[in-house]
Design goal:
The protein has 269 residues and is an alpha/beta fold. The protein is built from eleven helices and five strands; from the N terminus they run H-H-H-H-H-E-E-E-H-E-H-H-E-H-H-H. The chain has a five-stranded mixed beta sheet, with helices on both faces. A hairpin with a 2-residue loop joins strand 1 and strand 2. About 3% of the residues have low confidence.
Length: 269
């Protein structure tokens, strides 16, 4: 080998017996820490920026380019988000509320603006539907509910949980898309009885409800995509583990200055 590469035998053996440099030792330490972080299944989605934040919390401060290089050299990559095609579930035009939110995704305090949406999850026994309610201030999921039917009852149950936990004042803005659940007479009456103000995205415009759409994207690509659910009970367990055990309490959120929703809300109290 040395003859083919035109390298002196002495140089080869010198290289082979050479002790690892300080930088090599640091790189090995960083690599081991990265692997430890990604042992948590929910953090397999992390790329170099969030890996760096995890390392900083462990007292290890390294340049993000160095972390990215080490990950690339060892074939460690973040999960790629799947493309999502929005479904139009709009109600009749007369039922549509104005877009009062107007993409103001950063209210001045908690319980000023809530947003809601429904997503679907496949199981062996059929589709399961999940409704979430988010407080836009810290991007925290206040409540969620699942059902085998994507009806108004599902939405109202999720809001009842959120109201019980937060007891918001009248005047709260509640934003959603134009799904038939949110244009139903029962839902509109529910909001009026609580003196909430209704707001809706423009038809077919997912960007008007981008925060909760983003949450659903993280939920599916970081967590649910690797499961083969048999029943709604398994779905509930997985949702609880991700939302209550990770997203609200531990997951870094760029919009919160890289703080989890719970911590951001606590620091702002």
């Amino acid at each position: 080998m040395c003859s083919i590469l035109e390298i002196k035998n002495k140089s080869y053996y010198s290289w082979k017996s050479r002790k690892p440099s300080k930088r090599d030792k640091e790189n090995a330490l960083i690599l081991n820490k990265i692997k430890e972080i990604r042992e948590d299944k929910k953090k397999e989605c992390y790329g170099s920026p969030k890996i760096r934040l995890e390392l900083i919390t462990s007292g290890l401060k390294y340049n993000h380019k160095r972390i990215a290089r080490i990950m690339s050299e060892n074939a460690i990559f973040a999960k790629i988000k799947r493309k999502h095609r929005a479904k139009n579930q709009g109600g009749e035009k007369k039922d549509i509320a104005p877009n009062l939110l107007n993409r103001n995704f950063k209210p001045s305090a908690s319980n000023k603006i809530w947003t809601s949406d429904i997503t679907y999850i496949s199981t062996h026994s059929g589709w399961v539907y999940q409704c979430s309610v988010m407080d836009l201030y810290a991007k925290k999921i206040l409540a969620w509910e699942v059902s085998t039917s994507p009806n108004t009852e599902l939405v109202i149950k999720a809001f009842q949980k959120a109201i019980k936990r937060r007891n918001p004042r009248s005047g709260l803005m509640v934003h959603s898309d134009q799904g038939c659940q949110y244009t139903s007479d029962r839902y509109i009456t529910f909001l009026k009885n609580h003196h909430f103000i209704q707001s809706m995205s423009r038809r077919g415009n997912c960007w008007d409800n981008a925060c909760i759409e983003s949450f659903f994207g993280h939920l599916k690509n970081e967590w649910l995509c690797d499961f083969k659910f048999q029943s709604i009970i398994e779905v509930k367990s997985a949702l609880f583990e991700y939302i209550d055990g990770f997203y609200n309490t531990k997951r870094f959120h760029a919009g919160n200055g890289n703080l989890p929703p719970d911590e951001y809300e606590k620091n702002s109290a």
